[in-house]
Amino acid sequence: MVDGTSYSIKAVLRPRGLRIGTNRTGEPGLRIGIYYIGKILEIQKKYFEAIEKYTYCINNEIKECDSLSSRSNCYCRIGEYNLALKDLEVLQDKIGYNSQIYANKGINYVFLNKLNDAIKEFDKSISMEENNPFAYYNRSVAYYRLSNFKQAKADIEKALKYDSQNEKYNEEYNRFYKNIS
């Protein structure tokens, strides 16, 4: 039971026919269930509690890469951007170069107001995945904050090219970029 609401860990533990009590690698279900409890807490925006669950998982090598990524997201949500970056660096060491990791690092640099570092991370993300609207959108934010409005507009237009239905991108384009020539 989490926050007075009961959740069925069994349902979460059986996503592809897993046997009750173990995952595919034979880990006890309760251990791996801690990761999913962290996900539930994260969805409920209980980031500190989720961080505790993910830290347990990382320390006990349970879904370690997923836990690092999720804990990094939680750190970002509570404003601990340097800790988020540290987790992303560890994750990158474990799984190698990944477009989403670069984009997430870029976001944390934006929040730290290290805009040139952010742009470098978004550039790396885009070089690996050219049709990544998330990276284009967030790079546009960095350029906008540097008062490079033409480049910011070009990037948000690319984001919209790859995700034209995104309400946030459309709203910000109409609000900030539409009249920039």
Low-pLDDT segments, ≥5 res:
5-23
The radius of gyration is: 19 Å
Averaging pLDDT over every residue, what do you get?
86
Supply the number of helical segments: 10
Order of helices and strands: HHHHHHHHHH
In one word, what is the shape?
elongated
The number of strands is: 0
Report the sheet-strand fraction: under 5%
- Biggest β-sheet, characterized? none
Distance between termini? Answer: 55 Å
Classify the helix fraction into a percent range.
over 70%
Indicate the structural class. mainly alpha
Structure explained in plain terms:
It is built from 10 helices and no strands. The protein is an all-alpha fold and 181 residues long. The chain is elongated.
Give a quick summary of the entry.
With 181 residues, this protein is mainly alpha-helical. It has ten helices and no strands. It starts with 8 loop residues before the first helix and ends with a helix.
